[in-house]
Amino acid sequence: MMGSAVLLHVIAVVVWVGGMFFAYMVLRPIAADQLEPPQRLRLWVGVFGLFFPWVWISVVVVLATGFWMIFGMFGGMGGVGMYVHLMLTLGIVMMLIFFHVFFAPYARLKRAVAAEDWPQGAQHLAQIRRLVGINTLIGMVTITVASGGRFFLA
Q: Structural domain tally of the chain?
């Protein structure tokens, strides 16, 4: 069962962090360079509309499998290394940032695009971009802690 939990946990992390990395490092610069604000903002509403359900699924899977491993396999927080505590803390910070993005600037972006208020939409997209950039960095640190933490933070 531990193998299944680890597999699902890693897949969910790859979907979430990999999706943010792709959006931030690949799609964003191309969209900014090649699309006018109305097309760019509509593109991002569509991209987020397809990506965010996957993030919600990833959040649920990461939490469920993570807590299952901690409490079902290792007997609780006292049975895991410091790196697991750090990984959990960073993961929760990432989830809180995502919740904020989803319920605040993304909701405002959708409203601005629907109203064709391109300057407001651009402001909301810029806020999302900053938060996704921060979350991508936290995600990379979390992956580093997860993969190497037992060797350096045991």
A: 1
